[in-house]
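Exercise: predict the fold of this chain.
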Amino acid sequence: MAIKILVIDDEPDLCEMLKVNLEKTGEYTVVTSNTAQGGEALVSQHRPDLILLDNVMPGRNGSDLALRLKKKDSEFRKTPIIIVSGKGEMVYQKKNGEFKWLPNSPIVKTRGQLADVKGAEALAQAYGVDDYVAKPFKMEILLEVVQEVLKRTRKVTGEDKPPEEAPI
């Protein structure tokens, strides 16, 4: 069974590119939305296994949606979320007790535009998201991050364990 991914981004061309490239792998089915509000409705309707979420969008931003989905009482709190943001090398991190976007952050890895563990931890702490990829990105980097997050979150939730054999 294919893994369901929801892409929420205000750039229709990017949504289509992600849909085509992710589905081309044969591992994923992809649904897209160009607004946080529409994306939230699709979360309930499609129950995705993973969400790729733009942070900066008109109206409600991605970080607000991530906070809503990751609340303790939300049925979607365990759904992995990867922030895919046009902030470039600006990474959300804690400074002076508050979380803010900081330019020229040293926590961006050299392997493309993927924030390293410190950046991912700051995002996870702030929003409960599972990783971060900055735009522009290489598709192979995004695919790698998607695979890493799915592997990591399935181990945490126990979904990768084989079913127990029935007693004979």
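Check your answer against the key: The CA atoms of residues 16 and 166 lie 43 Å apart.
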